[in-house]
Amino acid sequence: MTKESRGRFFEDFRLGQEIAHATPRTLTAGDQAVYVALTGSRFALHSSDEFARRLGLPQAPLDDLLVFHLVMGKSVPDISVNAVANLGYADGRFGACVFPGDTLAARSTVIGLRETREGKAGIVYLRTVGSNQRGERVLDYVRWVMVQKRDPASPPPDPTVPELPAAVAADRLTLPDRLDLRGWDAETAGSPWRWSDFAAGERIDHVDGMTVEEACHMMATRLYQNTARVHFDARLQKESRFGRRLIFGGHVISIARALSFNGLGAATRVLALNGGRHVAPCFAGDTIYAWSEVLERAELPGRGDAGALRLRMVAVKDRPAADFPGRGADGAYDPSVLLDLDYWALVPR
Amino acid sequence: MTKESRGRFFEDFRLGQEIAHATPRTLTAGDQAVYVALTGSRFALHSSDEFARRLGLPQAPLDDLLVFHLVMGKSVPDISVNAVANLGYADGRFGACVFPGDTLAARSTVIGLRETREGKAGIVYLRTVGSNQRGERVLDYVRWVMVQKRDPASPPPDPTVPELPAAVAADRLTLPDRLDLRGWDAETAGSPWRWSDFAAGERIDHVDGMTVEEACHMMATRLYQNTARVHFDARLQKESRFGRRLIFGGHVISIARALSFNGLGAATRVLALNGGRHVAPCFAGDTIYAWSEVLERAELPGRGDAGALRLRMVAVKDRPAADFPGRGADGAYDPSVLLDLDYWALVPR
Amino acid sequence: MTKESRGRFFEDFRLGQEIAHATPRTLTAGDQAVYVALTGSRFALHSSDEFARRLGLPQAPLDDLLVFHLVMGKSVPDISVNAVANLGYADGRFGACVFPGDTLAARSTVIGLRETREGKAGIVYLRTVGSNQRGERVLDYVRWVMVQKRDPASPPPDPTVPELPAAVAADRLTLPDRLDLRGWDAETAGSPWRWSDFAAGERIDHVDGMTVEEACHMMATRLYQNTARVHFDARLQKESRFGRRLIFGGHVISIARALSFNGLGAATRVLALNGGRHVAPCFAGDTIYAWSEVLERAELPGRGDAGALRLRMVAVKDRPAADFPGRGADGAYDPSVLLDLDYWALVPR
């Protein structure tokens, strides 16, 4: 039997199957430094131990999206090596903060399966849970991917499609233990705005642009130990329909989130990922801009210090976002749009 | 009111104004590792905890220029987003060493203002102070930048131009607490030379060259959380007079300082930045070389273990520095010159 | 006397000469994070503190090859600045694990010297030892390099060529104190295979490919504080026979080792480097693939928990390695081959 793995095909997934993803990872201040160098992230909670201590934490937690990408990266060798496409994610909720020295492990459960119409591939729905060394949940989310069949003639499974919420309900948002925004210092945080300053429908242009280099997106993706070869193998990709390496969608999210500090510096922590769509592929040389829209404002039960904002973050390429390019009247996206992400953020009151 | 910031214009600065720069930053061993990977820095004091302990410190402090760039990076969103040009800096003095885990915050005071002749912009002089979590000064310096006016017709302020020293006086140089060079081990430090081996007028070619890539300078500049868009936005820069991204001048300083180890390995710590000029812009693909000249040798009051050297460090591009290219007889710089920096370094006696 | 160093020439080496390499380095979790971001390394022992603790260690040790490259990098300014070629290494043995916070120093002893036939250069054989702050050996190896003569007319030394083993004998392999693989968890490690599953002659395709960028290989080489200018100076290299920067051979080894996780995830630690040959130069833009062959299986005296595998790792460029390109019947290498490395790895029983 060959020692190397070629990844699972659609036939290798069964409803209810549990998969423990290999090689847990201890995240450190080193990972955070590399993350900052690759994205420019500068949210105060993740940037300053002193700021974090004023909010009740022992030190600055690692960036939420670094945690998300690492947990997802862990699942790639088991789930998506033979994926045709990442179709979406939903119902993502962050739990315990991750601090330097915490070791994250990830597990996934198959919660849905259905063959595609053509019968050459199938869609696998998984709930992935990332936990720390104490078994505390740091993140869980549902992701669905289209995976090739090993044999197009193999019989389809009974189709099962999980019901997924359009967004995480506000009463299911959880705050990390001890985090208390009463100590929030707006000047230090770099944003004068608070929860009540935001209104549904409001749009914010994040102004700045960031050009992505091959070296940068590959370093980011390797940092997450994500092995999807479309990001790394230029020779293989030359033969693909894109003709070149594809930038990991998570890197686009991270760049847009870092840019969003200008306007959303008060969005101190990602509480939940409601859903997201990578509308178009991103390549080295593209310059990313971003804008956000406030979708909804929600109180957090029993919390006078903080509220939640449901935000839509749109990343575009090679044009400023000042006119908020998104979907047109016909529902079609502007050709510049890369990403349309729906998430909940924690904001001081 | 829009949530995003477009940065201050000249009219937004007032004499005596104090600006607390947002998002303090906890620097870690991770930042030092990224700094080494981006610059090749290898001064023993910053490279080895054991070496630092022999000199009385609890562990290796972070590179001085990493601290400088971080403090300056913090000021960018408040000061120089609408800057036309960085005109200079002066009177920069390093104070307490910065160790992994220290959190740096930066504040600036407007100490001078004058409109330019054409009246479309003005020059703002600021003293910026970087402090650690105990309120100890780690660095302060004066910087002046030309900033656009929002409205060219707005009335000019009373012109105030601060008096700035050509160089920090030797008796104002401060050494970090506990640092004692009696334990200096020249073999381990990688340089046999001591303070008395240097003579004013002496020139040193640093021999090696370093080519800069877009990914490298952008990572460095993001590490400092410097958001100046000229370094990151290739699309925007295509429309600029340079046609491409401009490399952060601080990265050029860091590369030159790292190269200067060959010849100046004994220049163990930067004590002061007397002044500097970015003579020409640097772009990705340029190869940086450097040479230094000893300007002055100064005793440090009460210190038998160490003295100061005032050094001029010149960085050039795309040609070796063996013939010390600088200003010609007519005062004009050789076209290869990128940087002409005047600083004080601490050297063992 | 000039302050800068131009490096040793062949005449500067004497048999028995001891050279202490300058600027020891404290390695941290930051270095490990940068290493992961540059290579994609994901061996469980180096990735997870929890995994390492189950095997008796206090936390995850740094990647073995990061240690190797750092120790070798330290020797470059003293040994190979004027090297014409790195000819080989042999008899490399890893000792104590290196943990974040350990400070490594390197020393070399000249163990052989002989002039080349043409008399313009000579071959220097050195044994280099890397030690931690407690004086424990973390690595030692023999390396030989061809170094230019300062003066082609200078008389040759008595030729001395050390006897070197074709491979480290299995009974000379040393395991780090406390490391005990009885706690090995194959699922977490990401590989179901154990020592007895491997057989001499078996070949493993590591499947994935990694394209190397200029920024990535330069960052890696700077991380090791290796100053060899062929890797950094594009202007100088334009005049060389290659016309461009040469990728540090150690980076090719690290990329291939990281790729080898797919198939050799159980090869948890590098125990020894028997020898290696950089068959062809690697340049930015090349895509690296790798395959391995099991050369030999050895028991480790008194150890029921672990055995050793002697492995041959071959890195190729710009073509998959599924057909195991290596030497042809005529002994000549396939033109795609970059590296042919012989090493011992520790594997659970």
Please give a structural write-up:
The structure is a homotrimer of 349-residue chains. With 349 residues, the first copy, chain A, is α+β, with helices and mostly antiparallel strands. Chain A has one domain (10-152, 166-348): Roll (Thiol Ester Dehydrase, Chain A), CATH 3.10.129.10. Chain A is built from 9 helices and 12 strands. In chain A, a hairpin with a 5-residue loop joins strand 5 (121-131) and strand 6 (137-148). In chain A, helix 1 runs antiparallel to helix 6. The longest helix of chain A is centred in the first third of the chain and has 16 residues, at 64-79. Chain A is globular and about 60 Å long. Chain A starts with 17 loop residues before the first strand and ends with a strand. The model of chain A has no long low-confidence stretch (mean pLDDT 96). At the A-B interface, helix 1, helix 3, helix 5, strand 8 and helix 6 of A face strand 2, helix 1, helix 6 and helix 7 of B.
